[in-house]
């Protein structure tokens, strides 16, 4: 096990050591407005992730309405969940260019639009585009900023804050499920989707609450500041220094700043000469604004590009690559039980007991407590969030591998409770990601992680269904997903030791030379 960022030994190659430097004091960090960010993220999880866990209600309505196969209809839900996570790296680019607040507001509009347009669906293929793609992209544009902002606003209680905000998923699974069931019964599924789309507009309000911290206080990204006396643009961030030191795109960025300075000087000249040409002044203002937007877009793209492909690429860290491989197998092991447990209960003739208290409800309820408890434990000074994360994964794997051996309701309920509690490690994923790469690269890094999780959620359930078509049982599906999950966890576990061993070997060789 390992306990700190220094133990992980991550280095971008620019000697910045961003992750090891404490965040400068800011009145909003760990303060009152930080808890407003938690509330905003909590509501986002209710409306986005909670809604996606409640799509079983609508899936039944779509089957009856369009008379399509179960596999084809299920792709609507799979696309929505998968795309929400898969677009993570692209959303990281939007965050670098526009910031979390604007990205979340645009995402809220897209999400609501997807729900509303889906109310007029004439076939399942229409839902692929409106609900699967449109709503999925919108959900991704809200979800990632909600996670990133909580990480930025908390330093001492990050794990607890992430745990509280992500409990919205469990609450949403209960609230939205009951709400959609009521709306479908009273008004029909089309009106239900229209109403849910209107409610989803509250995601824009949540985005508006994501007030950005000052860049100098969080130590990330570029800032172009305007000096009121000399109107000269200055680039004041470590990211810009990294890009310029790499020697790529630096010339274009300097040219853009130079163009902006020229526009400032022209405007100063016209004002000094008391020019009365309002049209020329208006044109210069527009041109200056376009130049500023171009500089911001280029710098945002440069940060995003170098995070993935440049000298400071996230993929140069083997532990982070192992984390990505782990995510490719982990999330499907959580989704498969949620989807197929109701059918397994029917096979075991336990429907009467399951109707009283569904096993999936047990997972959702205990999942809420798991996130909070694991978050509190991880924030203890003597406890490492990484160790808690890995122990929860091992517990989860054990439950998945033993689930096919259980055939009574009580034993299945106990296993589902352990699955729900162990899956509380989801709230620690942003924390351990930030420990790996630092706050500066959190948006891009976590975008990659949820992208890998999205791929797992997109293809995991269909794979389990394909196994069932061959064997007429789900046992093999749990065994395969559990073993792949275990391999990913073991690979993640051993990478820090390999990475720490290699520098020692290199230093020994250099000493011998």
UniProtKB/TrEMBL annotation:
One GO cellular component term: membrane
Molecular-function annotations in GO: monocarboxylic acid transmembrane transporter activity
Membrane topology listed for this record: Multi-pass membrane protein
Domain Major facilitator superfamily (MFS) profile residues, every copy: 37-500
UniProt keyword terms in alphabetical order: Membrane, Transmembrane, Transmembrane helix
Transmembrane helix among keywords: yes
Pfam families: MFS_1
InterPro entries: MFS, MFS_dom, MFS_trans_sf, Proton-linked_MCT
Membrane in keyword set: yes
Signal peptide feature range: none
Main location: membrane
Transmembrane residue ranges: 33-55, 75-96, 103-121, 127-148, 160-180, 192-210, 319-341, 356-374, 386-406, 412-433, 445-464, 476-494
Designated name of the protein: MOT14 protein
Organism listed in the record: Oreotrochilus melanogaster
């Amino acid at each position: 096990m390992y306990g700190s960022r220094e133990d992980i030994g991550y280095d971008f190659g620019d000697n910045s050591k961003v992750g090891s430097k404490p965040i400068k004091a800011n009145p909003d960090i760990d303060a009152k407005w930080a808890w407003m960010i938690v509330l905003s993220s909590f509501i986002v999880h209710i409306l986005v992730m909670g809604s996606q866990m409640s799509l079983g209600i609508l899936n039944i309505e779509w089957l009856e309405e369009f008379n399509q196969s179960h596999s084809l209809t299920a792709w609507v839900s799979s696309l929505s969940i998968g795309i929400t996570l898969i677009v993570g790296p692209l959303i990281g680019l939007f965050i670098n260019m526009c910031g979390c607040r604007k990205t979340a507001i645009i995402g809220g509009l897209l999400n609501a639009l997807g729900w509303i347009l889906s109310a007029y669906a004439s076939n399942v293929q229409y839902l692929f585009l409106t609900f699967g793609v449109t709503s999925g992209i919108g959900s991704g544009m809200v979800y990632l900023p909600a996670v990133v902002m909580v990480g930025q606003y908390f330093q001492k209680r990050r794990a607890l804050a992430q745990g509280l905000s992500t409990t919205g998923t469990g609450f949403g699974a209960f609230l939205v499920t009951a709400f959609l069931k009521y709306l479908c019964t009273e008004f029909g599924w089309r009106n239900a989707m229209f109403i849910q789309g209107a409610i989803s507009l509250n995601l824009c309000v949540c985005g508006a609450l994501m007030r950005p911290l000052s860049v100098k206080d969080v130590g990330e990204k570029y800032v172009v500041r305007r000096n009121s006396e000399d109107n000269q643009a200055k680039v004041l961030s470590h990211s810009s220094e990294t890009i310029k030191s790499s020697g790529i795109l630096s010339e274009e960025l300097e040219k853009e700043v130079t163009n902006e300075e020229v526009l400032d000087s022209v405007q100063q000249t016209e004002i000094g000469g008391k020019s009365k040409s309002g049209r020329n002044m208006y044109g210069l203002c527009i041109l200056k604004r376009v130049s500023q937007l171009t500089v911001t877009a280029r710098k945002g793209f440069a940060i995003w590009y170098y995070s993935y492909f440049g000298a400071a690429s996230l993929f140069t860290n083997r532990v982070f690559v192992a984390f990505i491989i782990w995510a490719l197998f982990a999330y499907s092991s959580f989704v498969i039980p949620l989807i197929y447990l109701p059918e397994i209960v029917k096979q075991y003739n336990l429907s009467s007991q399951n109707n009283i208290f569904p096993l999936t409800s047990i997972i959702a309820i205990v999942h809420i407590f798991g996130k909070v408890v694991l978050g509190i434990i991880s924030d203890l000074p003597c406890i490492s969030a990484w160790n808690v994360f890995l122990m929860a994964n091992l517990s989860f794997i054990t439950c998945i591998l033993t689930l096919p051996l259980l055939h009574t309701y009580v034993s299945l309920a106990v296993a589902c409770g352990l699955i729900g509690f162990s899956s509380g490690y989801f709230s620690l994923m942003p924390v351990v990601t930030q420990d790996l790469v630092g706050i500066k690269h959190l948006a891009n890094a976590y975008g990659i992680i949820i992208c890998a999780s999205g791929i797992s959620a997109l293809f995991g359930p269909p794979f389990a269904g394909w196994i069932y078509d061959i064997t007429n049982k789900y046992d093999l599906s749990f065994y395969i997903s559990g073993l792949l999950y275990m391999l990913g966890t073991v690979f993640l576990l051993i990478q820090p030791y390999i990475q720490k061993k290699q520098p020692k070997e290199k230093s020994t060789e250099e000493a011998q030379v």
